[in-house]
């Protein structure tokens, strides 16, 4: 039986920040997939769009929230009528969503060191994120790391190191137990903000919410590039810099600041799988009495 | 409309140098945003709440520097520090052209970006600061492609138009952006033989010029600055190809600063949507009074500073 994969649209939230860079890498990743991908994947017809309105978001099967200033993005999202549609996209429809740096902050259920009065979060990942964890720009750095979530491209294999650029980067400070409602314990913590809760839209979406938080990558605090740039004591032995939970994926660093599309290749593979699951689910759903 | 800036920074060769990718990377994070001049912590909070992607901390906004005259220098580090402690968004600060010790002080303070700015009184009549050795990235102003690429070779990780600061008149910012664009278009139409001569004429590095011609845009993030006072001004600069906008005196010299600041932020995100621009332009109260650039004497023009 041949599986017909529909056209897949991936959006990049274009309110502020490095959205154009993600679109460029998505294009380059889809070229790599077409050249090297599995037969099923090479059949996908990808479109990549910038998302600034609820109408544009509604067209998307997957979404990237880029690096930028998370406070600016969440304020502009609220004023552009996008905040609730974004929460629906991530938490009700449970469509694949990937956040880098500022995007990771927005996708966390809990965050600290936010601006006075807090900021609006989208949520989706049961984690607490510590903003500007490494400090200011003078403490920004890059490190070559081995990552488990890379795809092959035409000129680079998944085993090669990936250059991770950390700019005033956040990290995942704590993995939280999943709650059906709001993260109430987090809410009672001082100077910590939480995302509002949303019920999943259907059975398939519900399944995504039962997934545990997977730690996808950590950064040893002994990393020379990190040590060389740190002006203050850095606690602990490692920091969590990549997590996934069901449909939501978050990174503290910026793949969009490299010319290396291997994470995008891997993630597009995940998106096409999710689109296929949704398709199968709806076929079964429709044929049910 | 902003042209794509390839993720390799256009000149990969500089990537290894003092973390150029990290320095130019922060500028990319500011794109599509508004950087606002603020003179105290209270204004910084208003800017942050309005959705500014960064603030520029300085003692006097350009309109006041213009009105009061005298020598304009780097701001008191204590005042900058207070702003850094008040907001979580990046904080930039200005140093005088060529004043490398002011830059060292700002680096020790830990600001996120240094603006080597013609708005302050220049400290060196010939040289700009060698910006490569600093860990803090620099933004510099330009009136044309020659100035822009000279600043990039000196290590600037971000460029802005000079415009005419403190006037509320956008004409010079438009002139500078159009000049950069037309210089680049000229370079694009040239053979490599002609490019050598053009590089000599502009006084820039040949390889950087060649790279720029290939990209069809500046090889680093390029913001508008100098005279932006309304949401429409901001969207105008975005449609001309800027990656984001600096607003100096335009916000806190207007009637309702918070409302105008929010409106300009919305206008930069939705710069291509006239309906949104129409909505955010409504009922903003009084804009800054402003000075007609045409009425300025040649000696009063700040944009002429820098070489």
From TrEMBL, chain A:
<dbReference type="GO" id="GO:0004359">
    <property type="term" value="F:glutaminase activity"/>
</dbReference>
<dbReference type="GO" id="GO:1903600">
    <property type="term" value="C:glutaminase complex"/>
</dbReference>
<keyword id="KW-0456">Lyase</keyword>
<dbReference type="InterPro" id="IPR021196">
    <property type="entry name" value="PdxT/SNO_CS"/>
</dbReference>
<dbReference type="InterPro" id="IPR002161">
    <property type="entry name" value="PdxT/SNO"/>
</dbReference>
<keyword id="KW-0315">Glutamine amidotransferase</keyword>
<dbReference type="InterPro" id="IPR029062">
    <property type="entry name" value="Class_I_gatase-like"/>
</dbReference>
<dbReference type="GO" id="GO:0008614">
    <property type="term" value="P:pyridoxine metabolic process"/>
</dbReference>
<keyword id="KW-0378">Hydrolase</keyword>
<comment type="similarity">
    <text>Belongs to the glutaminase PdxT/SNO family.</text>
</comment>
<dbReference type="GO" id="GO:0042823">
    <property type="term" value="P:pyridoxal phosphate biosynthetic process"/>
</dbReference>
<dbReference type="Pfam" id="PF01174">
    <property type="entry name" value="SNO"/>
</dbReference>
<dbReference type="GO" id="GO:0016829">
    <property type="term" value="F:lyase activity"/>
</dbReference>
<protein>
    <recommendedName>
        <fullName>glutaminase</fullName>
        <ecNumber>3.5.1.2</ecNumber>
    </recommendedName>
</protein>
<dbReference type="GO" id="GO:0005829">
    <property type="term" value="C:cytosol"/>
</dbReference>
Automatic annotation (TrEMBL), chain B:
<dbReference type="InterPro" id="IPR013785">
    <property type="entry name" value="Aldolase_TIM"/>
</dbReference>
<feature type="binding site">
    <location>
        <begin position="248"/>
        <end position="249"/>
    </location>
    <ligand>
        <name>D-ribose 5-phosphate</name>
    </ligand>
</feature>
<dbReference type="InterPro" id="IPR011060">
    <property type="entry name" value="RibuloseP-bd_barrel"/>
</dbReference>
<protein>
    <recommendedName>
        <fullName>pyridoxal 5'-phosphate synthase (glutamine hydrolyzing)</fullName>
        <ecNumber>4.3.3.6</ecNumber>
    </recommendedName>
</protein>
<dbReference type="GO" id="GO:0008615">
    <property type="term" value="P:pyridoxine biosynthetic process"/>
</dbReference>
<feature type="domain" description="PdxS/SNZ N-terminal">
    <location>
        <begin position="20"/>
        <end position="225"/>
    </location>
</feature>
<dbReference type="GO" id="GO:0036381">
    <property type="term" value="F:pyridoxal 5'-phosphate synthase (glutamine hydrolysing) activity"/>
</dbReference>
<dbReference type="InterPro" id="IPR033755">
    <property type="entry name" value="PdxS/SNZ_N"/>
</dbReference>
<dbReference type="GO" id="GO:0042823">
    <property type="term" value="P:pyridoxal phosphate biosynthetic process"/>
</dbReference>
<keyword id="KW-0663">Pyridoxal phosphate</keyword>
<feature type="active site" description="Schiff-base intermediate with D-ribose 5-phosphate">
    <location>
        <position position="94"/>
    </location>
</feature>
<keyword id="KW-0456">Lyase</keyword>
<comment type="similarity">
    <text>Belongs to the PdxS/SNZ family.</text>
</comment>
<keyword id="KW-0704">Schiff base</keyword>
<dbReference type="Pfam" id="PF01680">
    <property type="entry name" value="SOR_SNZ"/>
</dbReference>
<comment type="function">
    <text>Catalyzes the formation of pyridoxal 5'-phosphate from ribose 5-phosphate (RBP), glyceraldehyde 3-phosphate (G3P) and ammonia. The ammonia is provided by PDX2. Can also use ribulose 5-phosphate and dihydroxyacetone phosphate as substrates, resulting from enzyme-catalyzed isomerization of RBP and G3P, respectively. Also plays an indirect role in resistance to singlet oxygen-generating photosensitizers.</text>
</comment>
<dbReference type="GO" id="GO:0006520">
    <property type="term" value="P:amino acid metabolic process"/>
</dbReference>
<feature type="binding site">
    <location>
        <position position="178"/>
    </location>
    <ligand>
        <name>D-glyceraldehyde 3-phosphate</name>
    </ligand>
</feature>
<feature type="binding site">
    <location>
        <position position="166"/>
    </location>
    <ligand>
        <name>D-ribose 5-phosphate</name>
    </ligand>
</feature>
<dbReference type="InterPro" id="IPR001852">
    <property type="entry name" value="PdxS/SNZ"/>
</dbReference>
<feature type="binding site">
    <location>
        <position position="37"/>
    </location>
    <ligand>
        <name>D-ribose 5-phosphate</name>
    </ligand>
</feature>
<comment type="pathway">
    <text>Cofactor biosynthesis; pyridoxal 5'-phosphate biosynthesis.</text>
</comment>
């Amino acid at each position: 039986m041949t599986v017909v994969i529909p056209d897949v649209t991936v959006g990049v939230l274009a309110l502020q920040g490095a959205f154009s860079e993600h679109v460029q890498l998505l294009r380059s990743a889809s070229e790599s997939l077409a050249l090297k991908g599995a037969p099923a994947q090479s059949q996908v017809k990808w479109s990549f769009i910038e998302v600034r309105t609820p109408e544009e978001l509604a067209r998307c099967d997957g979404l990237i929230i880029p690096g930028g200033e998370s406070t600016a993005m969440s304020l502009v999202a609220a004023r552009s009528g996008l905040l609730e549609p974004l929460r629906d996209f991530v938490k009700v429809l449970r469509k694949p969503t990937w956040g880098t740096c500022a995007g990771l902050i927005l996708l966390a259920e809990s965050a600290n060191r936010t601006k006075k009065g807090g900021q609006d979060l989208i949520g989706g990942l049961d984690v607490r994120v510590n903003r500007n964890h490494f400090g200011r720009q003078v403490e920004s750095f890059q490190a070559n790391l081995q990552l488990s979530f890379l795809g092959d491209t035409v000129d680079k294999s998944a085993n090669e190191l990936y250059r991770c650029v950390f700019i005033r980067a956040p990290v995942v400070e704590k993995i939280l137990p999943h709650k059906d409602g709001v993260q109430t314990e987090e809410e009672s913590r001082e100077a910590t903000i939480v995302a509002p809760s949303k019920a999943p839209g259907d059975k398939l979406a519900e399944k995504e919410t039962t997934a545990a938080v997977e730690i996808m990558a950590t950064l040893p605090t002994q990393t020379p590039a990190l040590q060389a740039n740190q002006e203050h004591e850095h606690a602990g032995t490692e920091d969590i810099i990549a997590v996934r939970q069901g449909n939501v994926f978050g990174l503290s660093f910026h793949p969009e600041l490299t010319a290396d599309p291997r994470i995008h290749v891997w993630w597009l593979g995940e998106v096409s799988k999710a689109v296929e699951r949704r398709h199968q689910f709806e076929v079964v759903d429709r044929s049910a009495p | 409309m902003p042209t794509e800036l390839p993720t390799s920074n256009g000149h990969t060769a500089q990537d290894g140098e003092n973390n150029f990718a990290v320095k130019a990377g922060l500028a990319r994070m500011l794109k599509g945003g508004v950087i606002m001049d603020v003179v105290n912590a209270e204004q910084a909070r208003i800017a942050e709440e309005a959705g500014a992607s960064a603030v520029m901390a300085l003692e006097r906004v350009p309109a006041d520097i213009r009105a009061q005259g005298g020598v304009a220098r780097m701001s008191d580090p204590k005042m900058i520090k207070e702003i850094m402690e008040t907001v979580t968004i990046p904080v930039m600060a200005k140093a005088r052209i060529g004043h490398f010790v002011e830059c060292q002080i700002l680096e020790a303070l830990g600001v996120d970006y240094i603006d080597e700015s013609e708005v302050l009184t220049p400290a060196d009549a010939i040289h700009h600061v060698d910006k490569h050795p600093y860990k803090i990235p620099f933004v510099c102003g330009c009136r044309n492609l020659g100035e822009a690429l000279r600043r990039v070779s000196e290590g600037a990780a971000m460029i802005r138009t000079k415009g005419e600061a403190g006037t509320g008149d956008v004409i010079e910012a438009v002139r500078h952006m159009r000049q950069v664009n037309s210089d680049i278009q000229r370079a694009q139409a040239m053979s490599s033989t002609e490019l050598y001569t053009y590089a000599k004429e502009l006084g820039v590095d040949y390889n950087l010029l060649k790279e720029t011609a290939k990209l069809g845009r500046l090889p680093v993030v390029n913001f508008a600055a100098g005279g932006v006072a309304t949401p429409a001004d901001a969207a105008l600069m975005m449609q001309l190809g800027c990656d984001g906008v600096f607003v100096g005196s335009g916000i806190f010299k207007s009637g309702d600063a918070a409302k105008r600041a929010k409106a300009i932020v919305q206008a930069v995100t939705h710069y291509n949507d006239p309906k949104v621009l129409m909505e955010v332009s409504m009922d903003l109260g009084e804009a800054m009074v402003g000075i007609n650039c045409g009425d300025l004497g040649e000696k009063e023009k700040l944009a002429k500073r820098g070489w």
